[in-house]
Amino acid sequence: MDVTSLLLLAFAALGIISSNAPITIAVVVLLLIRVTGMQQAFPWLEKYGLTIGIIILTIGVMAPLASGKISLETLGSSFLNWKSLLAIAVGMLVAFLGGRGASLMSGQPTVVAGLLIGTVLGVALFKGVPVGPLIAAGILSLLIGKS
User: Fold this and answer.
1) Three-class DSSP category at 131
2) CA-based nearest residue to 119, from 106, 108, 133
3) Residues 6+ apart with CB under 8 A from 131
4) pLDDT tens-digit profile of 37-94?
5) Phi-psi category of 37—alpha, beta or left, where left has phi over 0 and alpha has psi -120 to 50?
6) Using CB atoms within 10 A of its CB, is residue 123 exposed (0-12), middle (13-18) or buried (19+)?
7) Which of 39, 59, 60, 100 could be cross-linked to 141 through a Cys-Cys bond (beta carbons 3.0 to 4.6 Å apart)?
8) How many beta carbons lie within 10 A of that of residue 104, not counting itself?
9) pLDDT tens digits, residue range 18-35?
């Protein structure tokens, strides 16, 4: 067994130990792609995976609006409550950081490994959610002065 597969198995173990299904499922899918000899999928996943993931995440976040659970009135009242205004500001900050993070990750691929390890450890050890690499890269870009 090669080192990459062993590393993926270690990440799968972290996902199982921490009861984090998204990490476990993602790693198992990647292992299956490796084992079944479908490595030609990796360049495509590397190129479009993040975009597809963001689209699916956005669909999930916007589903309550589309289903009618969040009304236009509720949406409008967001601009009248300080907590909602703070949420809007934080959302804007996170979107800004995500944009910087995407630029940093594509411009400096050497930081991707560290961000990946940090995110997986954060998910496994702190019951986090694996949406952190983009934001982590955005924060890193602020710290190291890259955009």
Assistant:
1) coil
2) 133
3) 57
4) 899 999 999 888 878 988 998 899 899 999 999 888 888 888 888 888 898 898 899 8
5) left
6) buried
7) 100
8) 24
9) 777 887 898 999 999 999
User: Looking at residue 38, what is its pLDDT?
Assistant: 93
pLDDT tens digits for 93-111? 988 888 888 788 777 777 8
Residue with tokens 């479009």: 48
Q: How many CB atoms lie within 10 A of CB 16?
A: 15
Please answer whether residues 142 and 33 qualify as being in contact, where contact means their C-beta atoms are separated by less than 8 angstroms.
no
Q: Which of 43, 45, 145 is nearest to 100 (CA)?
A: 145
| DSSP assignments along 10-34, one per residue | HHHHHHHHTT-HHHHHHHHHHHHHH
3-state secondary structure 76-125: HHCCCCHHHHHHHHHHHHHHHHHHHHHHHHHHCCHHHHHHHHHHHHHHHH
Is the pTM higher than 0.70? no
